[in-house]
Specification:
single chain; alpha/beta; Rossmann fold; CBS-domain; 6-stranded mixed sheet; 4-stranded antiparallel sheet; 17 helices; 38% helix; binds adenosine-5'-diphosphate; binds magnesium ion
Amino acid sequence: MSRENSDVLLSVRHLRKFFGINRTAARKMLQEGAGKNDILKKTGVTVAVNDVSFDVERGKIFALIGLSGSGKSTVVRCVNMLQRPSSGEILFEGRDVVRMDKRELYELRRSKISMVFQSFGLMNHRNVLGNVAYGLDVRGVGRGERERRAMEMIELVGLEGWENKSIDDLSGGMKQRVGIARALCNDPELLLMDEPFSALDPLARRDMQFELLSIQKKLGKTIVFITHDIDEAFKMGDTVGIMRDGRVEQLGTPTELALSPANDYVREFLNSIDKTKVLSVRHIMITPSCLIREQADPLTAIREMRVNDVSTAYVIGRGMEFIGIVTLTAALQARLDKLSSVSSIITRDVPQVGHDVLIGDIIGAASDTPFPLAVLDDRGRLEGIVSRAAILSSLS
Ligand SMILES: Nc1ncnc2c1ncn2[C@@H]1O[C@H](COP(=O)(O)OP(=O)(O)O)[C@@H](O)[C@H]1O
Ligand SMILES: [Mg+2]
């Protein structure tokens, strides 16, 4: 896949981070191919991040997923230099943050990159408005302006009416709304979110996922989203990176990962996800083998079906537009009835779908009809068909 023309906001290049004293020994063991556990045992050094590279395009959500301890938090902490990388580059708008001086870093954290934590990180002695406006307060923005902007963000996250409430009065979901409003208040280029919804109950969590996606659509922010939940990663991420033991095992869109996992680890990881929410009709449709014209006579239809070893023929018009189907049974009867063409025995109410429809959204339609679904393009031309068997096998 070519990413040359894309607008990359953040590019992480060969990032490594070691924790511990004896790093030279650790590096040497790493070069010799030793694993994270052996290195820790022999040298006392934790290889938290090991040669991680990825790009995040402007306006997109990059989801990083992995088990606890796989290095996700360390990666995001390196992005805004809360942790200094042991080696590698972190290019933000083309500039390496590792080489920035104190002033530039301060500026970066203050106005370009915001962070949202799992534990909310709110100040209990300030009310909702005070928390959201905090960043602007620190920047010296006057009270009127900062409260106006803060109120805008409070409305954006659906908390209007709560601005004067104390943080203690809020539910977990509402606290995280405050966290997001505060992060957005500075109008940052990049939002780093470290397991922002992991502490929430499942319902609040689903609400927040939806909320964040709609905010993202509205504001077009670039987001690095960390989670240990594969469903959440696939729901939120335009691109997903799967981490294990400090490495990225695979990078790709949810569809790419679901269709071609790079190794057994990734396959195992993906086992629990619901593929019907990732794969679309395009991925499972097949070309119908038996096409006939509306004017075809019954014998031709029967022959076509026999040759192709199917019991349904797809009827199309002159411009490939889909008209309906003719079953073998109907064609045999039409032959007995000496009909001159199949046009009167066409079943015309065959369910139709576009190729971008998610498989999860056609399961109902597919189980209600005895025929495969017809996949049509936007001009009504037949592109393919989806059988119930194809849908069922995509579920496994
Ligand atoms: N400040 C630290 N000092 C020592 N080890 C750390 C530190 N931070 C993280 N680690 C270790 O680095 C590894 C990766 O941790 P982390 O990035 O927090 O993983 P995740 O966020 O995926 O759970 C873990 O083995 C963890 O114990
Ligand atoms: Mg973490």
